[in-house]
Amino acid sequence: MSTQFPVTAAPSLQDEKPTAPLMRKKRVSGASRVEHWLYLAPALIVLIALLGYPLYQLINMSLYDYRQAQVSGSAPLVFTGLENYRILMGDPEFWTVLRDTVIFASACVVLTLLVGGALAVFASRLRPWVRTVLFAVSLGAWATPAVTGSAVWLFLFDSTQGLINKVLIGVGLSGFNDFSWTYEKWTAFGLVASEVVWCSFPFVMVTLYAGIQAVPTETIEAARLDGASLPRIFYSIMLPMLRPIVIIITIQSIIWNFKVFSQIYVMTNGGGIAGQNMVLNVYSYQQAFAASLYGLGSAIGVIMTLILLVVTLVYLRLLKRNGEVL
Amino acid sequence: MKFTRTLAVAALAAMALTSCAPPTSENAASSQDEATGTLRVWLFSEVNQDPKSKVVDDTIAAFEGKHKDVTVDVQYIPVDTRAEKFKAAFNDPSSAPDVAEFGNTDLASYVTAGGLSDMTADIEAWDEGKDLDPKVLETTAIDGKNYGVPWFVGVRALYYRTDLLKEAGVEVPKTLAEIETAARAIRTKNPDTLGISVGGASQFSAMPYLWAHGGSIAADNGGTFTSGLDSAESRAGITAYTNLVKDDICPPKTCAEFGGNASVQQFIAGQAAMTIGGDFNYKAVAESEFKDKFAVVPVPGLTAGSIAPAFAGGNNLGVFKSSKRHTLAADFVKELASKKNQQAMFDAMGNLPTFSDVQKSVAEDNAYVAPFIDTIAAGTNFVPITDTWSTIDAKGIFTGMYQQIVTGKADVETASADAAAAMNKIFEAK
After folding, report:
1. Does the pLDDT at position A72 exceed 80?
2. What is the CATH number of the domain that holds B97?
3. What interface predicted TM-score (ipTM) does this complex get?
4. What's the pTM?
5. Where in the cell is the protein located (chain A) (predicted)?
6. Alpha-carbon distance B404 to nearest alpha carbon in chain A (angstroms)
């Protein structure tokens, strides 16, 4: 396909040339438009191959009764239209999982932003060597693979041998003797959420810290001379200037936390007692791979993609209305 | 503009042509039956690999000596990632082996996937085949056809600490009800010890309770299944088992999450007075610091002297449908699963043989396997032989039922009715 580019592109480039000086606008939509696409082509081809095709297959699979027997050719492949979606919509477990995922992900997003933001402000006021230590420590958390981090947290929060319970008992909270953090639904979610926040706040902190450093000191000095209080400086000057960064990290956090898999899978042993800690991504894995219901698993994947797309679009739209340009 | 449109149309056309349906592969039985060449074999890798490799290597040497121009290429694959490996082999037959070892609970889903070859004729023509334990051979059969040769069996029995039972003044339990009272007595005496370590997720410890009470997981009505979990007998079995996961025996906060391994680990760590463990756990227990203070008996039934039907776990050897050397592959399976080699595997690994006569002889020579062999002899049982069982298992419907009961989220009535309904839905969806 790529060999076609020059052939199609060259003549149109020639055609447009004479009219160029008079019709500037037209030139843009003609010759240089092709040029735009030419420049974009390598990236587009890579994107279509790596993102477009899998997404296409995901949607495609979700429209079939597609199980292991169909994949390996021992049963006929049947197009079932929206049947997989109908099954999902009629399954109360799906709705519970969806609700839990939304609550869990939202809590993770808010906590990550709060912790990361607070530490970023904190870091900008610290002595350089303290800041270096803080960053080095946080980067350690950031660099830890999710599975490793989850395993370490499980050790820390072990009901009998864990350090956390020992410390809590040590300070006189005897209720934590043999306290199981993974037994109750919401303590288990809380435990996983704290691990998720622990491994994702460094990104927020570093990014926001960079943003704070980029705020011109003159502006803040001017505000201070005008008699603005510290909170006022923060809300009226820092925050608006940091807004583009905040937008990006919020969207990224939403996407990341909505898609949490490893932490839940490792820390609650694949979804918790009687599946109480299931989130969408683990649910989709369970359906698609463990239970070999690839069609149904794909349908969950499509729904997740749609939800994230909508969330992102609505968020961008809201910001655009506020006159913000990314 | 025109170019963009052309590109878009071309891309769409390409997609439509290449794949208007998701990809599938062909797993038709090979029409070829070559007698020479390379025979590819997949076996599970073990924590302690050397003894297994030695038996297998000896078998290969003998097999290659008997068959001209044949080389056997063995690959050891990890048990944990077997699902991916086998699915990949079914999806791409050209990368599939000829012979493979697989867990007997996986058999039905592999057969439905069209991956395994019918071995009924091979077993019938095999002079040693008639001595295979019929109950165990049954676990390889779907619609009267056998899709594998049982290589070894695994059954669970009751492990107990002789010192702790003595200290609490209780006898070795002779019925299921006595297990509960003994366990409670021990924990009352020793509040830090689990009376019996069993778990909400250790399904193979729960099954003997279900079956001993006359219950069933599902009834096979000739190809279609109906869940039996909501019958009165099943409910009695579920109640008896979940009564063990109580604060005065095995507190749910600790035990609700236990699978089979975690339960046995508690026993090995000295935290439990009893557990339901497999013959495959024996070595680890015998190497623990309680090696002189434990004993094993079959899990008793409802009445003294009876034995609860155990789950017949174990692994089979089978031939892939896509193999171009079915006869040769089947010969290798028979060689590796022969009486001589099962005896060798028992000596090397402690794997229980699948031949009734070999089982008797190893039990006579090794006192410790007697409770397990007695359990097998008393009659074993199995999960429903249908590929839908792997879906039920993956969704955790069976274990989820026990976990809901022991955590107090649902009573036996509700949880068993829900589980039965969920299972029936999956059986019907087939």
Report:
1. yes
2. 3.40.190.10
3. 0.80
4. 0.84
5. Cell membrane
6. 6
